[in-house]
Structures are given as C-alpha cells and as structure tokens.
Design the sequence.
C-alpha cells in the first residue's frame, strides 16, 4: 500500500505542476489528507486533465492495427503493448502500468470532492455551483468505475453478473483501506446510482472545455453503457435525451484532408473529452514508426468517404497510418470519450434492433452525409441515402459504419465482446515470426489481468487467464 500512496503522491505533483496552485494539492495522500474547503478548491481538484484518462487496454488488444513488421513488434518500447497485441497470459511481465491506477487516481479525487462538498452548506447563492461540482465528481467516479469494470472484469452478462468478480468499490477518500472485489452487478448498480444523481445536478449546456461534464455527457455515457450491456431500450432512451439536448455534427468537408491534426481541441462533436492511458508503441500521428492501420479496415472505405483522408495518412508503401486523434491537435493518444457521432450510431442501432428500418436509416444518413465528398471522384458522385430492405440489413449497415467511424476509440474492443456474447463467434488472429496467436470468442484472456503490484499489495483475486 505504501507504493500506491507514493504513486498517488507523484500524480498529485504532476497535477500541481500543470497549474493548480493550492497547497492541498502538494499534500501526500493519506487517510488524514488536508481537505480543500471551498467550491473553488474543488473545481481546481477536478479541473485537471490528468483525471480525464481512460483505460487504453482495449485499443491495444483490438484488431484495428498491426505492427509494420515482426522487427517493429520486437523492438516496441512497451512490454504491455507487445503482449496485449498477442493476448498473452502475462501482459505486464512485472512492469508497472497505469491503466489501473490512473482510474483509481480519478476516483480518489472524486471521493475527496464528494466528501468535502457535503461540508459546505448549499444555499440559494451557491446552489448552481454546488450542484455542478457534486455532479461533476459523481460523473467522474462513475466513468472511472465503468472503465475499470469494463476492462478488468468479465464483460457484462446479465445471467452471471451477480457472481462475476468486478472491482473494489472505493467510495470514500481513504486509500489505506483494503477492499475486496465487488460483484459486477453491484459495481454497475453503483455506476447507475452515481450517474442518475449526476443527471439531476449537472448543467444542461456543454461547457467550452469538454474535459468538464454536462447533463448531455451523463446521458451519453448511460447510452454507451446500456448498449454494451445489451439493454437497447435504455440505450435508446438515453441517446434520445442526449441528442435532444445536443446533436451537432461536423461537416468533414470543412476539415483539412492533408493536416496530420485535422481536428481542433474541444470541437463541436465532442461531448466529453477523455483520452486513453496508452503505451508509447501505438501513439497516434506521424512520429509513430511501429504500427499501421489494419488492411481489412482500410478496405471498408470508398473513395468519396472523407474519413479516408481525415482519419488516415497514406504512406509511400501503400499502407496507412492513423493521424492525430479525434481528441484534437494535442491528441497523440486515442480519444475514448463521448461524442455525438457515436450517439447517432447508438440510436440507429437500437432502432434497427427493434425493427424500425427506415427511421434507423434516416438517423444513419444524417451522420454519413457529413462524411461524404462528392468531388473526390470524377465525375462527381452526389451522396445517395443508404437504404435497407429489412431490420437485419439495417443492423448490418449500422454496425459497418460503427467500425468505420469509431476507429481507435476503444469501441471496437467493446463491440467484439458484445457481438461474441450474442453468438457472433469472432476469433481474432495475429501472426508474428511465423507463429499465429488467436483469441477465440469469450476467451478468459478478453478480461485483462489486474496489475501484479495491485494484487501483491492488496491481496485481491487475480483474473483467470
């Protein structure tokens, strides 16, 4: 536990360097940490982008990329990245990873805020700010709990959730307390409790800084979670609320096709900005010499699809690299937050699954027309609405666009697991140095191991691999 405390101390020092000047940010975390005392203090605690890192393991393990050669895989600077690529039983090999601890760091700060804000009287004068700060902390804690349970516990299955081991639920600022793993079901109950309360407290309008949450973000997250759970009615209803409050899309014709950073920070489609805790081996942009986009993914794009030039850059050997991420100009790490394009796709999928074929295609076309360049070919090819003859065809078209739209955003890993939960029978394969590695559907290795240092310090049960 001392190592964990020192780790959090280091994280706090980083946050302090990044601009928070309050003395309490310099304090070593402990049960008796000096608490911030004002709403302004709490905003300083929460207003650190260090707390907006999500787990990046799914990006590492999904099938959207490949190493450019066997040699680049062998020379990749990250053990975790190399081993995640082949779904090894021992991913970390004793190295320190921040995929687990960064989320618990965010939970630690959220719990400090939630404890402290209750000590401030809510008055007519401070009510709006008091509500916003508390809702923000609840949202941050819920998102962090979800990131952890979604990656370090069995993928949600209604039949087994009550007995599947989830994660330790830290609900107070103490970091000295050793907690067991709660069940997946109990973890999800807490996530929904936090988010349901957050939706009543957060502001409706999106803030300029998308690292701050809103009521829109809370409903977007609920839609995403319910989709992954297979609860499509709840996913759709939250998507409806989200899009009713905010539904902007970017016309990709207005973006640079040649820039390595086509998106600006806090752009119009972002609802909540969150980036992956990821390994150096798959940093995005022109400086990455290790990976390239999977050829089968690139083959899905037609010449008039603006995503081909906005998301990717073609190399002299005919392969493609992923550009800087949807996060914005500083997005060397994958964007794993919330955005309107994903919510449109959730809405379209839910409609297709309940047999609403034409409404599903109408929603999908609202998105796709903004990704179409009629002048990319000669003669020009105007956009033609996507059509479907039945619900199955509509669903196939929506899921195809999910794969093409939500690239390097963690969604592909979630989709592979939820499709296999429903019987899709998808097996992933990689070949390195003549050896083929595979990940069969619903394999225990689709649940990432808890870092060794956490298991050694707390004694919690490791995941079966």
Sequence:
């Amino acid at each position: 536990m001392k190592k964990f405390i020192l780790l959090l101390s280091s994280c706090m020092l980083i946050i302090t360097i990044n601009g928070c000047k309050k003395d309490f940010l310099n304090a070593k975390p402990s049960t008796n940490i000096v608490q911030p005392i004002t709403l302004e203090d709490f905003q300083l605690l929460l207003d650190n982008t260090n707390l907006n890192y999500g787990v990046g393991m799914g990006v590492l393990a999904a099938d959207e990329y490949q190493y450019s050669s066997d040699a680049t895989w062998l020379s990749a600077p990250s053990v975790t990245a190399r081993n995640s690529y082949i779904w090894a039983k021992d991913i970390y090999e004793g190295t320190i990873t921040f995929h687990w601890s960064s989320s618990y760091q965010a939970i630690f700060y959220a719990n400090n805020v939630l404890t402290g804000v209750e000590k401030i009287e809510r008055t007519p004068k401070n009510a709006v700010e008091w509500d916003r700060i508390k809702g923000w902390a609840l949202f941050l804690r819920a998102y962090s709990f979800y990131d952890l349970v979604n990656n370090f516990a069995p993928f949600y299955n209604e039949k087994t959730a009550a007995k599947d081991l989830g994660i330790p639920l830290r609900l107070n600022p103490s970091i000295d307390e050793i907690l067991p793993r709660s069940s997946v079901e109990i973890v999800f109950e807490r996530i929904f409790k936090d988010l349901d309360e957050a939706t009543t407290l957060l502001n409706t309008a999106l803030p300029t800084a998308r690292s701050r949450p809103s009521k829109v973000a809370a409903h977007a997250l609920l839609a995403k979670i319910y989709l992954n759970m297979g609860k499509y009615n709840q996913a759709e209803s939250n998507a409806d609320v989200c899009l009713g409050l905010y539904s902007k899309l970017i016309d990709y014709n207005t973006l640079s096709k040649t820039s390595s950073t086509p998106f600006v920070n806090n752009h119009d489609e972002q609802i909540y900005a969150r980036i992956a805790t990821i390994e150096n081996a798959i940093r995005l942009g022109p400086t990455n010499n290790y990976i390239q986009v999977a050829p089968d993914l690139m083959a899905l794009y037609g010449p008039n699809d603006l995503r081909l030039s906005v998301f990717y850059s073609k190399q002299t050997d005919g392969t493609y690299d992923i550009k800087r991420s949807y996060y914005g100009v500083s997005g060397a790490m994958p964007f794993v937050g919330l955005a309107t394009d994903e919510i449109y796709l959730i809405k379209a999928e839910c409609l297709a699954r309940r047999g609403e074929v034409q409404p599903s295609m109408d929603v999908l076309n609202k998105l796709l027309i903004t990704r179409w360049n009629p002048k990319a070919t000669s003669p020009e090819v105007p956009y033609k609405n996507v059509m479907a003859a039945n619900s199955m065809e509509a669903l196939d078209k929506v899921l195809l666009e999910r794969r093409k739209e939500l690239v390097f955003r963690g969604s592909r890993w979630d989709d592979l697991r939820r499709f296999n939960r429903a019987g899709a029978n998808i097996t992933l394969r990689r070949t390195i140095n003549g050896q083929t590695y595979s990940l069969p559907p619903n394999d225990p290795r689709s649940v990432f191991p808890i870092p060794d240092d956490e298991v050694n310090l707390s004694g919690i049960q490791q995941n079966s691999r």
